[in-house]
Amino acid sequence: MRKILRIFHAPLWTLATTALFLQGTSWAAATDVQPDPQLWPAPANREVVLRIGDGRQVRMLTLADLESLPHYKVKLALIWGERGTFQGVRLNDVLKRYGLANSKVLRFSAADRYTIDINAAEWLRRDPLIATRFETREIGIRQKGPLRLLWPDETASLESTRGMLWIWNLVSIKPVTAE
């Protein structure tokens, strides 16, 4: 009984976050990332959305370039209020196609200058998704797009610092070299 009463004394934001967390616990796990056989319309956005590679060999990719890879989907309920199906491509497929699969550490950067270095062990084991669509529509900049790096296996722990691996407005991926 005391535990129940303590919940009601929690701040309102804690209750809202807990409710979203509880709603989402059965929604996503790493095994829920599934191939998406649905035919996606050609992207309306024809601009460069991702720079990938190092200073010697940088590729400028459009949504069409990324979406030429196999498509995947995952249903998620996120603490930021989004609940639905994200579609995109596997990070590992992107790295293989564009020559970064053997990198030991990659630097991921967002449009707002957020940058994080992620070890290969992390992305190889967990196989994150680069989301290009939400509910089959391209993700706009105001919706934290056009690219988002999602880690579906950790939706239950987003309130921790591990959620810092989630990147919205992803704009570049490059290998980290000894500097």
TrEMBL record:
InterPro entries: OxRdtase_Mopterin-bd_dom, OxRdtase_Mopterin-bd_sf. Pfam families: Oxidored_molyb. Keywords: Signal. The keyword Mitochondrion does not apply. Transmembrane segments: none annotated. Residues 1-28 form the signal peptide. Residues 84-153 form the Oxidoreductase molybdopterin-binding domain. This is Oxidoreductase molybdopterin-binding domain-containing protein. The keyword Nucleotide-binding does not apply.
